[in-house]
């Protein structure tokens, strides 16, 4: 293996340390940052993610509220819960874990979260602010990807960055953040022609497809930085990324593992957003 590993766990620990220091400073001013996490239903993966977020809060000294609602909750009930959290001045950040059950309209729920408490960075106001480079809450996964790329010491400006995937949560914002760092950005998706060729020309390759092993060794440019956002549960019960790790690691200069890569960084960035939300609410 040629590539060096971008250690998401170690980087996340450093980011959480940064968050914890800021929390300590806010507590001296009588402010305790608080994150409310709403989980609907019993999806096992979502339960694991939410538990992780609550644990991270505890590690950073952030207060958390865990709100569990049944799978068959109505849209009106969920919206009422979000409204209550929106009006609660002691809650600084609101996160509604996605995906939501079929009877719920995700967009309506996201729109109900006030932009100043939208620590996921999913609300249209925060998405718009990010596009034009105004202060906002950056979506946690793409923001974590940028930190991971920067941790390698590679200069992003001027590089060809290829993002595979165009979701609102990862692909699109990752592309925007890379553009903001002056990369030349290509967004690839299911209709892209010559996807392999484009990927093979990427200095920075971000895979957010949701298909295990989608990125093969031939799609990796020698010396590239490869960021694997995929979390796919295999038939073997294990977690696999979107990248064929062993093959890609033969060619890349740097690569993120799955698990232990992007996932922990996403959660760490959420802590920073929550601290920021508390700071802004208090005007300090
Ligand atoms: N589901 C998968 N990733 C995320 C995320 O970053 N935020 C929320 N709210 N739900 C998710």
Distance between the termini: 48 Å
Q: What is Rg? A: 19 Å
Total beta strand runs: 11
Largest sheet: 6 strands, parallel
CATH-defined fold name of the largest domain: Rossmann fold
In CATH, what is the class of the largest domain? Alpha Beta
Helix content: 40-55%
Strand order of the largest sheet: 1-11-8-7-5-6
Structural class: alpha/beta
Ligand set? guanine
> Low-confidence parts lasting 5 or more residues at pLDDT below 50?
none
CATH superfamily of the largest domain: NAD(P)-binding Rossmann-like Domain
Q: Oligomeric form of this entry?
A: single chain
Could you give the order of the helices and strands? EHEHEHEHHHEHEHEEEEHEH
Portion in strands: 15-25%
Quickly count the domains. Answer: 2
Number of alpha- plus pi-helical segments: 10
- The CATH architecture designation of the largest domain is 3-Layer(aba) Sandwich
Overall morphology? globular
Explain how this protein is built:
It is a single chain. By secondary structure, the chain is an alpha/beta fold. It folds into two domains: 30-115, Rossmann fold; 140-263, Rossmann fold, CATH 3.40.50.720. Helices cover 42% and strands 15% of the residues. The chain has ten helices and eleven strands. It has helices at residues 8-28, 44-60, 75-87, 106-112, 124-131, 140-151, 171-180, 195-200, 245-249, 262-282; strands at residues 4-5, 34-40, 63-69, 93-96, 160-164, 184-188, 204-207, 225-228, 232-233, 239-240, 254-255. The strands form three sheets. It has a six-stranded parallel sheet with strand order 1-11-8-7-5-6. Strands 3-2-4 form a three-stranded parallel sheet, sandwiched between helices. The longest helix is centred in the N-terminal third of the chain and has 21 residues, at 8-28.
